[in-house]
Amino acid sequence: MVAQATHWKEIFLSERAGIIRTTILAVVLLVCAKAAHAIELRAETIDAFDRFVAAVETRLEPCFKGQHFIWSDDFPAVRQQLLNGAVIAQPLEGNGIIPLKGGLVQDWRGAVFVPHVTLQDVLSVAQDFDHHHVFYKPDVESASIESRHGEEFLVFMRIVKAKFMLSDVLNTEQTIQFIRLDPQRVYSRAHSKRINEVAAPGRSGEHELPAGQDRGLLWRLYGYWFYEERDGGVYVTCESITLTGDIPFGMGALLGPVIHDLPGEALRKSLEQTRRAVLAQNSSFKPN
After folding, report:
1. What pLDDT, in 10s, does the model give residues 27-51?
2. Tens digit of pLDDT for each residue in 93-113?
3. Mean predicted confidence (pLDDT) in 186-190
4. What is the DSSP track for 2-15?
5. DSSP E strand boundaries for the chain
6. How far is 216 from 16, CA to CA, in rounded Å?
7. Domain extents in the chain
8. Is domain 36-281 annotated with CATH 3.30.530.20?
9. Are 82 and 72 in contact (CB under 8 A)?
């Protein structure tokens, strides 16, 4: 009886400690969100990010030509997980965080397999930007195609990001180009053209902050998507690259794990929602 009581006491204390830690983190994030002053995206940070992206696109050049097109094919265990229904999201190297002067790059890749559908089924969802607010809610609050020239789109998206009590609303424009290699394979490149944080969203004083003069929660958003039809379905993989401001001095130990987790969580969720939307379009049920 004494041992059992001790056991339950340890569980209680462990759960209570977890609740306390979560509460403290939420309060700190709220304070940071309210107290944070605008920080400026500096030219040296932009230059460093552009160099990083150029190196990524050089690395991906064989993929753009159809070689090692689906990254998960190089890892048989990962490929089997996908066929079994798993959604994979992992940092490309280390923890996925690359420090730059005045900012942080997050570089993650992910994959999902959508069974019993065609490449066109998947592209019908991927290119239906006017309904992305349905497929990818609540992260995408609204979306619309501003222009289209062939397979190149200019898309407006209002993005909402929330973690604990820290939230951010962003008005973005993205150029998205789809390139078809053959009847079974298509890839796309998505580059943010502008990202403006929205102050007082949903209230009478709502307005956009100048680009690069905000809290630095998202300055750049790039994505490289690869689609291939085979094995009775479609493989969808992505490499997602984002640029944010640096972690405030002295807050690394507390905020670091949250910032490290966000890109992976967002990518995994996006892949899950993509699969769900495609399957919903090809069955009797619809996404909630």
Report:
1. 444 445 444 557 899 999 999 999 9
2. 998 999 999 999 999 999 999
3. 98
4. HHHHHHHHHHHHHH
5. 39-40, 88-91, 97-100, 103-115, 140-149, 152-163, 166-182, 185-199, 207-208, 213-214, 220-230, 233-244
6. 33
7. 36-281
8. yes
9. yes
